[in-house]
Amino acid sequence: MANVQILAGKRILVTGAARGLGLDFAQAAAEAGAAVVMADILADQVHDEAQSLAKNGLKVSSVMIDLSDKNSIQNAVQIAVGVLGGLDGLINCAALATGVGGVDMMSYDEALWDRVMTVNVKGTWLVSQACVPHLKASDQGKIINIASDTALWGAPKLMAYVASKGAIISMTRSMASELGPDNICVNTISPGLTLVEATEYVPQSRHDLYVNGRAIQRQQLPQDVNGTAIYLLSDLSSFVTGQNIPVNGGFVFN
């Protein structure tokens, strides 16, 4: 994607951008010509990653955001809009994933359930809510919500995460219906199990299950998802909204 400036002139905010898929989305969008603000609760890490990308000539900066704190969200969005001079696209990638699985539904911790729902679902809603007034001012606003294909096949012993990602898919459809008159497209990407820091805790047996069950039988990498994200941020997808796009090598079909 590095030589295709399909997002030239676009202004993009990416949450969860300190590492993993969020970092890869931010880099890919910047390489495609966008100006990007990378947001994460890991303030030092996202700052260092943004500086590293900026040294390579990319238009990136960073801001701290805490998806469990509405004031932090509003402040981060205002800073991002101030830096970018407006907003054309948002990727809601930040989520709790590490350490939220491995326990059956009868033993799941209620406090952890509440935290997963607060960050993954409520946080996505609040970030989108804060961004919508600025996206309305864009010629073609875009929101991409990152879910998971676990919500499509019901991964066991991962109930809070699966439920939160199922909620993201449903919330996307409702947002698309509401925001369509404002010329804002809202879509979901549901990646499969991807080799990032957040999945290092996943047992090898689960990795094997995915690889062996895919039509394309190999491990999934962050860059496998980039093309779909760049397409959905671009003007090429101006009539695509309310959709959930699984990107998983054919492990499960939508």
Automatic annotation (TrEMBL):
Keywords associated with the record: Oxidoreductase
Superkingdom classification of source: Bacteria
PROSITE patterns given in the database record: ADH_SHORT
Entry annotated with the keyword Oxidoreductase: yes
SUPFAM superfamilies xref list: NAD(P)-binding Rossmann-fold domains
Keyword DNA repair: no
GO molecular function annotations of the record: oxidoreductase activity
Stated family: Belongs to the short-chain dehydrogenases/reductases (SDR) family.
Official protein name in the record: Short-chain dehydrogenase
Species for this entry: Acinetobacter amyesii
